[in-house]
Amino acid sequence: MLATNQARYSSMTVLQPVIPLYSQIKESILSGILQGEFRPGDHLPSQRELCERFGASHMTVRRAIEELVTLGYITAIPGKGLYVSTTKPEPEASPMISFTEDILRRGMKATSRVLDAYTIHASTILAKTLEVHEETPLIYLRRLRLGDDIPMSIQACHLVYSMCPGLLDFDLSHDSLYRILKEEYHLHLNDCIAMIETALANEEEARLLNLPLPSPLLITEQITYTDEGRPIEFLRAIYRGDRYRFRLK
Questions:
Q1: Is residue 135 situated within a structural domain?
Q2: Chain centre to alpha carbon of residue 236
Q3: HEC states along the chain?
Q4: Is residue 211 part of a domain?
Q5: In this structure, is residue 158 part of a structural domain?
Q6: What is the pLDDT of residue 117?
Q7: By residue range, what is the domain housing residue 226?
Q8: Residues 76 and 134 in one domain
Q9: How far apart are CA 103 and CA 190, in angstroms?
């Protein structure tokens, strides 16, 4: 009986684990990035070229690409193709450093696209957050922030109108909000309370930031104070998870 079993086992083929094709494609591209075959900013082969190279379907290749995008190794830009992600910038961690200044420090050109800009009246929650009465006039400003024409962040803020009347008359597509507050209104931003969370982009956020779905985001909510201890701004900023990491001090 023992001999029979030994003969049976010796004739059996040892099965190797089957690695899904999308995983093989992902590992092949990742290996090229980590070994320097593809450098940050390099244009990668198109999805069609990858399909032909690996003999895979578009769905299989797309899954491999989506995982690499989620991990932050590549960036998919609609209409342009796939690129190796550059080193992730660190966004501002201080209310005294504006997005514009932060981007300029990195050697990039900062621009903005104003999505919404108008006055509203403070709701109960906003009034409590900004320490004003309900129905107090506020400025609502939402902008798409870009570095070298690459969408980097969506920032939406509420500001106390009485502290910066006429703010919407400035060119907020090209000028720094914090520069205007400091130099035109003589307001010194001195402190902030901030919260950080992660989330997946919704359809509008993905469209504005040129991201595929699903894509990770870093989100901050910040109350900014003047040197007199008065809240002036409630800011909600959405950052691309493939280009940002936070350094807090």
A1: yes
A2: 13
A3: CHHHHHHHHHCCCCCCCCCCHHHHHHHHHHHHHHCCCCCCCCECCCHHHHHHHHCCCHHHHHHHHHHHHHHCCEEEECCCEEEECCCCCCCCCCCCCCHHHHHHHCCCCEEEEEEEEEEEECCHHHHHHHCCCCCCEEEEEEEEEEECCEEEEEEEEEEEHHHCCCHHHCCCCCCCHHHHHHHCCCCCEEEEEEEEEEEECCHHHHHHCCCCCCCEEEEEEEEEEECCCCEEEEEEEEEECCCCCCCCC
A4: yes
A5: yes
A6: 96
A7: 99-240
A8: no
A9: 21
Of 39, 59, 84, the residue that ends a domain is: 84
Q: Is residue 195 packed enough to be buried (19+ CB in 10 Å), middle (13-18) or exposed (0-12)? A: exposed
Residue in 82, 54, 55 with CA at minimum distance from that of residue 66 = 82
- pLDDT values of the chain reduced to their tens digit, one per residue, 249 residues: 434 444 443 443 433 334 678 878 888 888 888 777 888 888 999 889 999 989 989 898 988 888 888 767 888 888 888 888 875 555 554 545 677 777 776 667 888 999 999 999 999 999 999 999 999 999 999 999 988 888 889 999 999 999 999 999 999 988 889 889 989 999 988 888 888 889 999 999 999 998 888 888 999 899 999 989 999 999 999 998 877 766 665
Can you tell me the distance from the alpha carbon of 74 to that of 48, in angstroms, rounded to the nearest whole number? 17
Q: What's the domain count of the chain? A: 2
Distance from CA of residue 165 to its chain's centroid? 31
* Gyration radius of the chain over CA positions: 25
Are 205 and 107 found together in one domain? Answer: yes
Identity at 57, one-letter amino acid code:
S
Q: In this structure, are 111 and 171 located in the same domain?
A: yes
* pLDDT the model gives residue 212: 85
* Structure token pair of residue 72: 């932050």
